[in-house]
Amino acid sequence: xxxxxxxxxxxxxxxxxxxxxxxxxxxxxxxxxxxxxxxxxxxxxxxxxxxxxxxxxxxxxxxxxxxxxxxxxxxxxxxxxxxxxxxxxxxxxxxxxxxxxxxxxxxxxxxxxxxxxxxxxxxxxxxxxxxxxxxxxxxxxxxxxxxxxxxxxxxxxxxxxxxxxxxxxxxxxxxxxxxxxxxxxxxxxxxxxxxxxxxxxxxxxxxxxxxxxxxxxxxxxxxxxxxxxxxxxxxxxxxxxxxxxxxxxxxxxxxxxxxxxxxxxxxxxxxxxxxxxxxxxxxxxxxxxxxxxxxxxxxxxxxxxxxxxxxxxxxxxxxxxxxxxxxxxxxxxxxxxxxxxxxxxxxxxxxxxxxxxxxxxxxxxxxxxxxxxxxxxxxxxxxxxxxxxxxxxxxxxxxxxxxxxxxxxxxxxxxxxxxxxxxxxxxxxxxxxxxxxxxxxxxxxxxxxxxxxxxxxxxxxxxxxxxxxxxxxxxxxxxxxxxxxxxxxxxxxxxxxxxxxx
Length: 502
Ligand code: ATR
Prior knowledge:
The protein has 502 residues and is α/β, with parallel strands linked by helices. The protein has helices spanning 13-23, 48-52, 73-84, 107-115, 134-140, 158-170, 186-190, 192-195, 220-226, 251-262, 276-286, 310-315, 334-346, 363-374, 386-396, 405-413, 457-464, 472-488, and strands at 3-8, 29-33, 56-59, 97-101, 119-126, 148-153, 176-180, 199-202, 237-243, 266-272, 288-293, 307-308, 320-324, 327-331, 355-359, 378-382, 399-401, 417-420, 445-448, 468-470.
């Protein structure tokens, strides 16, 4: 089973020990990053393994490999030697591992390590990209004995991550630590088991006064508790959310909490994606069971699907993809998430007799318009670019207008329900209101699809005028519960509804 390692990047050994104590239950081993220590602390490292009480890796990372050691190489070697010296008969008082870079050629260090049972990690870092011959690199890195090979690369695209998983498949017999840095690499830190990697490195990400670990490292608590890293085995089902830049997705939190509560052997990972083709290559390689597709790929995914549900077809967008026997099957849960949320809010079964304004004419508005039509409502599509409002409105014989005086006049007549579908007002631009020109009478029902912030400026203004308002958070939960239905082939357990929130 892969182990969780905490990178200790404190300035003093006392600070490192404190970090270790706070995170002890989430980790199996620690890496003492001597390069982060203040110079006078570096002379005291020999005592650290005994203080730590968990196996410790001795690492002095150079600047060129993303570390903080910028001194002379001779002094670095002396420090490494100091860490390995005076070996104790009780091995727990020695460093368990020492990280020696592939170009470091100091036989005396290796000799010292081997004599006293400190295992050598032979490391290679590519901070610029992913090597062409990654398989060769993994196979050739080991020198002698039971060295553990460590290869860390920096993917520049999702295709680079595909190369990493391919190389892992071809080097199953190599005892290794293997993962990617950066945003594209985040899933490789969770799926160590699928890469055959012995260790996943984590660091404390929310503490000031601490040097950062490597780019893209997760917090140990997040890896251990949210992703249940220690429970992941080759049999674990993998699901993902994919989009770009995918900075604010809440799906992993939602699904992993559900999986934990019902003890499903599954994990839900984020996969930032720059190409749908690479995403599907990766999905096939690691056997993804399902993917939540988000901005900007809900339409681009369509040509790759072998089946599309009625809703996905009529909206022309897909946010849920499931692996089927004959290819990828696409669904849209935004639409039903939206209508469930609105109908339960107004306490009705349809929208008959309602005159509704839909703000926006993009992907989200498409799903809303299709549902309003299905539920027999009448709508006005109001959009900054009137031509887009027109093309959407014409599909359903709805009215349309731009953000102008005609639009404002028409809106007065379509004001039973107002549904805001644009991204205007979303964090970090939460001081914006796309319909600031509109004065609420207080009788409108106002729904905003945005869920961050939970109450947009537009909703706050509507509420102050006396309107009933509905945030996008409810729709988000509902659409996720429908996604669960497609992923697990069963209804979302009602008992979990109030227990799992984003
Ligand atoms: P989504 O899938 O989130 O709907 P989209 O398809 O890019 O994203 O659509 C974005 C919607 O937000 C569009 O209606 C867009 O208006 P335009 O068609 O005029 O581009 C609207 N939108 C985005 N930024 C806007 C802004 N600053 N003011 C008004 N509308 C805006």
